[in-house]
Amino acid sequence: MTDLERPVYAANWKMHKGPSATRTFVREFRDRYGTHEDRTVLFFPPSISVPAFREASEGREDLGLGVQDVHEETEGAHTSAVSASMAADAGCEWGLAGHSERRREFGDTDEQVATKVARLAEEGVRPVLCVGETLEQRRAGHLEDVLSRQVERGLSAVEPSTRREVVFAYEPVWAIGTGETAEPDDAREAHRHVRDAVRRSVDDDAAESAVILYGGSVKPHNARELLETPGLDGVLVGSASLTPESFAQICRALDD
Ligand code: PGA
Questions:
Q1: Residues catalogued as catalytic
Q2: Tell me, what CATH number does 172's domain have?
Q3: Would residue 1 count as lying in a domain?
Q4: What residues make up the domain containing 117?
Q5: Pocket test for ligand 1, best of 103, 176, 213, 247 (most atoms within 8 A of CB)
Q6: Is residue 243, in this structure, part of any structural domain at all?
Q7: CB 251 within 8 A of CB 32
Q8: What radius of gyration, in Å, describes the C-alpha atoms of the chain?
Q9: Where would you tag: which of 21, 108, 126, 143 has the fewest CB atoms within 10 A of its CB?
Q10: Which positions ≥6 away from 84 have C-beta within 8 Å?
Q11: What is the whole-number distance in angstroms between the Cα of residue 52 and the centre of ligand 1?
Q12: Distance of CA 50 from the midpoint of ligand 1 (Å)
């Protein structure tokens, strides 16, 4: 697994953009974004669009490619699912695990998420473990408990030697797709809880060097303030990553 430049700008397209729309996006994005070696830019298209993304971004090693989810088994009778080894074979270097939409809509448990993280790591696909609290959990004062549990369980199936490769995305469930964004101070506190959980699960070095992204209604107008928050190493962007212009603006938010 490779080193990465911070900040990290990651686009999670969810169930948007088939192969044709993916090709169009990549063509436009390449022009608008230009080339910058001092940051990491990643895309998580739907898996059916992964080959189109690869083809359209040919020669652009700086545009990383990832899979939105994998099944926890290596193969078998699981209609519609893809495995970590298939994702690796298709050219994905990154893989999300535990996105709150997977947890909520598909019932992914902490144990399943842990296995997915482990499968990705075994295949050399760098896992991005997504964690985050619901509004009810936050209001009930359970922020730290929820984040600690999701991080510690999420890492539990990964070989100790590769745990430090895992990237984290703190995405408060109440901020995803709602237009509500965490205040920088709230994000800072949550990121500290994630880092503390990494310290308990791995060690001090891993906690200090852990890459922790923030996600939840990141837009061109708020990206800079969030990215300037100490302890925040990048952003995971949903709806604002769907147009080349707004995602390119986010990727350049710290430039002027
Ligand atoms: P959003 O999604 O930017 O549309 O809130 C973020 C995410 O779910 O990764």
A1: 99, 171
A2: 3.20.20.70
A3: no
A4: 8-247
A5: 176
A6: yes
A7: no
A8: 17
A9: 21
A10: 70, 74, 95, 116, 119, 120, 122, 123, 125
A11: 23
A12: 20
Identity of residue 131: V
Rounded (to 5) percent helix, strand, coil in the chain: 45, 15, 40
Q: What is the pLDDT along the chain (256 residues), one digit of tens a residue?
A: 557 899 999 999 999 999 999 999 999 999 999 999 999 999 999 999 999 999 999 989 999 999 999 999 999 999 999 999 999 999 999 999 999 999 999 999 999 999 999 999 999 999 999 999 999 999 999 999 999 999 999 999 999 889 999 999 999 999 999 999 999 999 999 999 999 999 999 999 999 999 999 999 999 999 999 999 999 999 999 999 999 999 999 999 999 7
How many domains would you assign to the chain?
A: 1
Instruction: Confirm whether 3 is domain-assigned.
Output: no
Residue 76 Cα to ligand 1 middle (Å): 31
Position 108 in a domain? yes
